[in-house]
């Protein structure tokens, strides 16, 4: 397998790779490599979900998301999940329940995001990075589901996690 | 806004862009630009969903997905959606119902995928590209939902679309 590095950034790397397909064909693919991430549906005991409204340049403005962030080197997905909830919304999570792990864009990117439901929340201090522009939005879960249906919430990882978490709570 | 092109591939381009954040900070961001895509939950009259098992090098092997593909230049999302269902699984779709439009990876990529529920399916001939390695999987919708819960289906666009479509059918 031949592999040519095109670019190495802080979060992503771009390679052009020669790939042998199972059908015998060999093709060149542009592959974005990403360290992976964790994301959490933070659910308070009063049934309120803590969402964020975050400025995302690539999405053209503010979008609704759940707290999430990239895995640091050597960090476990669970540790990353707890860290991001603390940093982005200022809560300690006592219980993390795994929902699933998703591929966000498997056509060109190896990013996987580990998704959790986080419960047993206790307030602590928020610690935003200076390049994070985040507003906290507290929303009862049924209203969250309406905001999915009316296309207000459009971030893929958040949609998957919120829908899976809601399904588990109802059963 | 300053913008430097790093790479221009068939599907994706990579730029390093100077971005003015709403908090007054100016940062450099690595941005992958993508033409966007459409994806469809193809639901037959007998209640069976037509999934695909597709070889995805970036995901390390075969993964379960719904039919999907990139927008061609000037193509509408609906036209793309119908074309991909025909090409990838060999069905004409008589009715497309919009589910939502998602951002797959808004931290570094502008890709949006338009999601639909496709019904009124009639068989036609499949037309795979030579670099597409696809197996067709027919599955009743309740079993699809089990394959989400047991983490067999892990593709983000497919998870969002299947869960939204299932929710609408139940109500």
Question: Major sheet of chain A, described briefly?
Answer: 4 strands, mixed
Number of domains of chain A: 2
From the spread of the alpha carbons, the general shape of chain A counts as: globular
- % residues in beta strands of chain A: over 45%
Q: Give the strand order, joined by hyphens, for the main sheet of chain A.
A: 7-4-9-8
Largest interface: A-B, 56 and 56 residues
Unreliable runs of chain A? none
Count all strands of chain A and give the number: 10
Structural class of chain A: alpha+beta
Multimerization status: homodimer
The helix-strand sequence of chain A is EEEEEEEHEEEHH
CATH-defined superfamily of the largest domain in chain A: Nucleoside Triphosphate Pyrophosphohydrolase
Estimated helix fraction of chain A: 10-25%
As a whole number of angstroms, the C-alpha radius of gyration of chain A is: 18 Å
Average the pLDDT over all residues of chain A and give the rounded result: 96
Helical run tally of chain A: 3
Tell me which CATH architecture of the largest domain in chain A applies here. Answer: Alpha-Beta Complex
CATH topology tier name of the largest domain in chain A:
Nucleoside Triphosphate Pyrophosphohydrolase
Distance between the termini of chain A: 47 Å
